[in-house]
Amino acid sequence: MHSTNLATSPLHQVNYAPKVFDLSKNTLREFNQALHEVKDASTEPNWEVINPKGSHAVAVGAEHPISIDVQGSVGYYCGGMNQLSTITVHGSAGPGVGENMMSGTIIVKGDASQYAGATGRGGLLVIEGNASSRCGISMKGINILVRGNIGHMSAFMAQSGNLVVLGDAGDALGDSIYEARLFVRGSVKSLGADCIKKEMRPEHIAILQDLLDRAGITDVKPEEFSRYGSARTLYNFNIDNADAY
């Protein structure tokens, strides 16, 4: 009787071709439904969308450890509520990319419109271009990394998680922030109510280095960033702070 080495058997060397959906021929509903009907992610690991043509809600609610490549730009809410999946947009994304995502990774090769990563609870959102206004609004545990600049009112009421910006930040950064950590390498036009510059301690350097590593960024150092966070004066009403409300 001949033994079989499972590590080198054909079963363990299968390279599955991506399942391709052409949105000029298939409907978006058909694509999203197919994602939800995945039975075994190990046999359907690679998915590809061609001709997205700015479609809204691409790959919303994906919940399996699969890879989804979108070959072009997308509209509103791409990757919303993502769990476990790795979604790469080879283009730019409209408003609300990664909104309320739970886990997994979303990578936008271009720019992202307003409120990217809004209310996100987990996972990693990487924007290789710029992000518009309200990036990370009300974030609740998500990690967001932007290679370019972010617009005004970013991290408004940000509760937890990390927002990393390699470029500059617009007006009112971190307005009414709770306990999220903001790391900005460039300049900040202005800080919002109750947001202050904070000391960059060794534990923050370690957190930032980990996020840069996960995003594949090797050309900057965490020591080049400044940290911003809550002054913790708006948690309860205080008459001395009334003009900040």
From TrEMBL:
**Stored CDD domains:** GXGXG
InterPro entries to which the protein is assigned, alphabetical:
Glu_synth_asu_C_sf (IPR036485), Glu_synth_lsu_3 (IPR012061)
Give an example GO molecular function. oxidoreductase activity
> Organism's domain of life?
Bacteria
Protein's name according to its UniProt entry: Glutamate synthase domain-containing protein 3
